[in-house]
């Protein structure tokens, strides 16, 4: 008996079980089984079981190709800049601006994390800056509690401030592509909201950790930032390419071109310019790029489409429709918290698409659809801070810290995550609702 003859309940159960199995494998990552293999295997099984069709596969590829290529290109740019000391120069420059004040150092580290997350995505900010922050705390001979405060700040800020630009987070790109949100339109809606998220994050973190942050530090022990620039020529080239890349992002909305075209072009020029650098092997960097994210995105979203085809996103869509009846504030806060809670238990990558499909199914007005799309992004960006499994970047971040003998237990992470994320998320969503009312779109 084929799947066509099975009752609807069996199909729904199969789709849910397959999704859970794939999700567990992605999070746990058994030895030798990467996230790409797990998601791809789930997609093939969904196709064989008839939960999805070839047309669904084509639709998924159309949704995620721009996002994943942009993400890979941004990581490549980050890797090049990291190799030549760009981020270490930036981190040391910020630290010297603190001028022996622990409180100022806390603020500058937070601001640097926000800027890096804005232009190089949250993964780059968390995974590149955190080791640099850790090394600086060692040089400054800070206590373990002070070190933990600065490390948690860099990791927390990387995610909570990854909403301002389309390219600041992989889920941003997926959502922007799905709802056809142009780069400039997205920026107008989200940059003011991101400033609120940054302010709320710094306040929440300072309230929680201020007892452990030293009032005075001796920044004279830190090396000169310029001494960490390994290749001045590539460093200068980066300052030419990055503004041009930002200009390309703005042009993308008017030309109706995918942002990945500009990001891939920028990384190509940067790699070409760095070809003679003794610190960079272009071929090695390309091999080390997170290509498995491309496979993971396509595979995971095909599995998600299996849930949609069985009507599960329609149920969520009904809840979103009910929230829209309550008005702008209810819609923004409700949608954002649903996205956050789902992200915290099943990862933000599948969450953002599940919610996007549900919002689309709710058949709302254009203004309400876009409001919920932005709220979904905020919830999917901030929600992963509630649990260690909320995003793959967090799991990798914890692994990077453990390699440096800094062990953060899941219980401690969740305690801090709940205490800090809930007020920051609420404040950010309220700001979105207010700002949407001000600009009227």
TrEMBL record:
InterPro entries linked to this entry: Arsenical_pump_ArsB
One annotated GO biological process: response to arsenic-containing substance
Sequence intervals crossing the membrane: 12-29, 35-55, 67-86, 106-134, 146-167, 187-209, 234-251, 257-277, 289-308, 320-342, 412-435
Keyword Transferase carried by entry: no
GO terms under cellular component: plasma membrane
Keywords assigned: Arsenical resistance, Cell membrane, Membrane, Transmembrane, Transmembrane helix
Subcellular location(s) of the protein: Cell membrane
Principal cellular location given in the protein's record: membrane
Molecular function terms, GO-annotated: arsenite transmembrane transporter activity
Topology with respect to the bilayer: Multi-pass membrane protein
Family listed: Belongs to the ArsB family.
Protein name (record): Arsenite efflux membrane protein ArsB
Organism: Sulfobacillus thermosulfidooxidans (strain DSM 9293 / VKM B-1269 / AT-1)
């Amino acid at each position: 008996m084929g799947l066509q003859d099975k009752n609807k309940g069996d199909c729904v159960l199969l789709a849910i079980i397959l999704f859970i199995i794939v999700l567990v494998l992605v999070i746990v990552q058994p030895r030798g089984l990467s996230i790409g293999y797990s998601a791809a295997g789930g997609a093939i099984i969904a196709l064989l079981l008839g939960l999805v069709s070839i047309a669904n596969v084509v639709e998924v590829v159309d949704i995620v190709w721009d996002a994943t290529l942009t993400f890979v290109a941004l990581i490549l740019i980050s890797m090049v800049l990291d190799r030549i000391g760009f981020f270490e120069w930036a981190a040391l420059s910020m630290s010297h601006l603190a001028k022996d004040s622990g409180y100022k150092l806390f603020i500058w580290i937070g601001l640097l994390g926000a800027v890096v997350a804005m232009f190089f995505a949250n993964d780059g900010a968390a995974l590149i800056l955190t080791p640099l922050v850790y090394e600086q705390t060692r040089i400054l001979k800070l206590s373990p509690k002070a070190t933990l405060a600065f490390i948690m700040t860099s990791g927390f800020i990387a995610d909570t401030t990854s909403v301002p630009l389309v390219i600041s987070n992989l889920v941003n790109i997926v959502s922007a592509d799905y709802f056809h949100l142009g780069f400039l339109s997205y920026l107008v809606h989200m940059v003011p909201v991101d400033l609120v998220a940054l302010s709320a994050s710094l306040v929440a973190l300072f309230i929680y950790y201020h007892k452990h942050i030293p009032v005075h530090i001796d920044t004279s022990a830190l090396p000169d930032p310029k001494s960490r620039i390994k290749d001045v020529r590539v460093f200068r080239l980066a300052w030419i390419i990055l503004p041009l890349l930002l200009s390309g992002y703005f042009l993308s909305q008017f030309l109706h071109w995918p942002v990945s075209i500009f990001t891939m072009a920028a990384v190509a020029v940067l790699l070409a310019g760095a070809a003679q650098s003794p610190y960079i092997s272009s071929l090695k960097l390309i091999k080390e790029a997170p290509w498995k994210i491309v496979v993971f995105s396509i595979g995971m979203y095909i599995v998600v489409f299996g849930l949609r085809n069985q009507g599960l996103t329609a149920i969520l869509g009904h809840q979103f429709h009910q929230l829209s009846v309550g008005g702008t504030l209810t819609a923004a806060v409700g949608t954002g918290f649903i996205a956050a809670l789902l992200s915290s238990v099943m990862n933000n990558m599948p969450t953002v698409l599940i919610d996007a499909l549900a919002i689309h199914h709710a058949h709302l007005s254009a203004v309400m659809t876009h409001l919920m799309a932005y709220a979904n992004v905020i919830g999917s960006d901030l929600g992963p801070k509630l649990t260690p499994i909320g995003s793959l970047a967090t799991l990798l971040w914890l692994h990077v810290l453990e390699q440096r003998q800094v062990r953060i237990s899941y219980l401690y992470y969740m305690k801090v995550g709940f205490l800090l994320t809930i007020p920051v998320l609420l404040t950010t969503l309220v700001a979105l609702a207010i700002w949407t009312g001000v600009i009227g779109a």
